[in-house]
Amino acid sequence: MFDVGFSELLLLAVIALVVLGPEKLPHAARMAGAWVGRIRRLLISVQADIENEVAAAEMRERIKKELEKAKAASGLDAIEGSASEIKAAMTDTESRIGSALRDAAPQQNDTTPPAEKP
Predict the structure, then answer these.
(1) Domain span including residue 68
(2) Does position 113 have pLDDT exceeding 60, yes or no?
(3) CA pair distance 40, 46, nearest whole angstrom
């Protein structure tokens, strides 16, 4: 990432020794190392999360495509359409039978023989 060679690191170490002094330099180096480690772990974690999200999105796309292919292959749309047509025809037939029975009921009462008188 950064193109830092040995000479640049040596120059930074000399400057840090002059600025901080020999007493504070080991503590500062430990703290800098700890911060670099935390930042590195954070970046690795973020990278892993992004890769997981991308993989999940790709998986959802593949599942969606497979479902569409399976739906097209099985003719599920045609079956659903036929089922709705059959249901509509049965409802229509049921209403016709119901109206025919209602119309026939009064006619049956008129055709009954009158009761005989004693």
Answers:
(1) 6-93
(2) no
(3) 10
Compute the 3-state secondary structure of the chain and give helix, strand, coil in percent, each to the nearest 5. Answer: 90, 0, 10
Strands (E), the chain: none
- Spatial separation of the C-alpha atoms in residues 108 and 100, rounded to whole Å: 12
CA distance 54 to 48: 10
Cβ-based neighbours of 112, under 8 Å, separated by 6 or more: none
Query: Domain count of the chain?
Result: 1
Contact predicate 20/28, CB 8 Å: yes
What pLDDT is stored for residue 38 in this prediction?
Answer: 97
Residue 68 lies in a domain: yes
